[in-house]
Design a protein that fits this description.
Strand content: under 5%
Number of strands: 0
Number of domains: 1
Low-confidence stretches: none
Largest sheet: none
Structural class: mainly alpha
Oligomer: single chain
Helix content: 40-55%
Radius of gyration: 10 Å
Mean pLDDT: 91
Number of helices: 4
Distance between the termini: 9 Å
Order of helices and strands: HHHH
């Protein structure tokens, strides 16, 4: 997964870290907005964040944002 460094804004990282640490992924739509604001055009990432599925610790988008993947 190619994740551009400029997409790792303070807001994006803070949201991802908060979800990872709290295991509360209800703010995933807010992460989508933050990624779009950061200039992320990657539809796979954005669609995953918008998806209504169950997200858990280990979510590939959160892991990529945090540099764990």
């Amino acid at each position: 997964m190619n994740f551009e460094g400029e997409w790792r804004t303070e807001a994006v990282v803070a949201l991802a870290r908060g979800m990872y640490e709290s295991r509360d992924f209800t703010v995933m739509p807010v992460l989508t907005d933050a990624l779009e604001d950061a200039g992320c055009p990657n539809e796979d990432i954005l669609a995953h964040c918008r998806g209504g599925g169950h997200h858990v610790r280990g979510c590939w988008v959160v892991d990529v944002v945090l540099g764990k993947a």
